[in-house]
Amino acid sequence: MPSGHIHDMKEVREIAERNIRELLDLALKIFHKDRELARRYVDMAFRIAMKTRTRIPKEYKRLVCRKCRNLLIPGVNCRVRLQPRREPHVVVTCLNCGRMVRYLIKRRRKSS
Q: What is the pLDDT of residues 14-54, one digit of tens each?
């Protein structure tokens, strides 16, 4: 395989990551005006990520339901609950499809 191919792929992934961020930012801005358009922007961003095998940034990944690909806006279309039992965690429930995601809360260690 020519060495130029790897360089080109890096470039493609950089462009893809930039486009993904732009699409997800647009989706967040337009969500309250047109939810369907916001959902399409999210879908386009995920398709770009899949085609180019690029990771979606963590800060955006947590804002999107993996089942129905809707933006998760607390109080609008998702429910956020704190669960102190066993391991403390946050439960985010999508109100469109019912999918639940748990995020563990790491406790800070007391320094002695």
A: 999 999 999 999 999 999 999 999 999 999 999 999 999 99
The span from the CA of 73 to the CA of 90, in Å, is: 15
pLDDT (tens digit per residue) in 68-110: 999 999 999 999 999 888 889 999 999 999 999 999 988 777 7
Class of the domain covering 1-61: mainly alpha
Taking Cα atoms as reference points, which of 104, 80, 74 lies closest to residue 92? 80
Enumerate the CATH 1.20.5.420 domain ranges in the chain, comma separated.
Answer: 1-61
pTM for this prediction: 0.80
**How far is the C-alpha of 24 from the C-alpha of 60, rounded, in Å?**
7
What are the φ/ψ torsions at residue 45 (nearest 5 degrees)? -60, -40
The whole-angstrom separation of Cα 5 and Cα 3 is: 5
Torsion angle, CA of 78/70/59/9, rounded to 10 degrees?
170
